[in-house]
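Quick one, tokens below:
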């Protein structure tokens, strides 16, 4: 199977996973990226079975609307029973690196509100130790150089993702050359640098369920 076929397979598995949670009042959280896009495309067939969705990016909001799914502001939604999203890397504790698509801050906010986080990923995303994928950090533009210097002090090599402006009007630094042995501590430490909006470690709030697309089929890991 191609990587794209594996992504579609886990998106289909996520539809089965969330179906029991859907009802007239249900608003679900929807992530960003190519795997989440497969999920959105399949979700369209269920649009009459639930109230709508909260989107983790402008791109996701547009794709949901194209499927006829109502999109709600998070501030107008009381509860989010489930959030479905992809990942750039995920470890055995279901801690993740996210933000390859620059949507990390809104993804983290929706994930924080959700009762359950269902991660959908093809097998290439599964790692023992996070850090092979460069960790994205969203920064306030005027703080970019300062944050970069603070990262260098920590032995990290930051690279400015040129030409990218997040949905929040901010910039992204991608962090190379470090393996993340203690994701929760690193997540908190990096978030403490003044000017950081958030970083792409999802460790304090990891996934509850991983649907992993492999050649043997979709594995459900909790
Ligand atoms: C976007 C993300 C995505 O979930 C992550 O980049 C995975 O993307 P894809 O499903 O395209 O592999 O965090 O900010």
């Amino acid at each position: 199977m191609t990587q794209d076929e594996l992504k579609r397979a886990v998106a289909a598995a996520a539809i089965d996973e969330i179906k029991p949670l859907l009802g007239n009042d249900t608003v679900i959280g929807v992530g960003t990226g190519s795997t989440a896009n497969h999920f959105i495309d399949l979700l369209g067939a269920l649009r009459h079975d639930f109230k709508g969705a909260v989107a983790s990016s402008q791109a996701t909001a547009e794709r949901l609307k194209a499927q006829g799914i109502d999109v709600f502001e998070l501030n107008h939604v009381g509860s989010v029973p489930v959030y479905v999203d992809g990942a750039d890397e995920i470890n055995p504790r279901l801690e993740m690196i996210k933000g390859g698509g620059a949507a990390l801050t809104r993804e983290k906010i929706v994930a924080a509100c959700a009762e359950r986080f269902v991660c959908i990923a093809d097998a290439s995303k599964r790692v023992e130790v996070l850090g092979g994928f460069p960790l994205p950090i969203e920064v306030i533009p005027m703080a970019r150089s300062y944050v970069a210097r603070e990262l260098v002090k920590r032995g990290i090599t930051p690279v400015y993702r040129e030409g990218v402006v997040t949905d929040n009007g901010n910039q992204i630094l991608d962090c190379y050359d470090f393996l993340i042995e203690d994701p929760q501590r690193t997540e908190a430490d990096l978030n403490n640098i003044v000017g950081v909006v958030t970083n792409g470690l999802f460790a304090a709030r990891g996934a509850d369920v991983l649907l992993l697309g492999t050649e043997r089929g979709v594995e459900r890991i909790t």
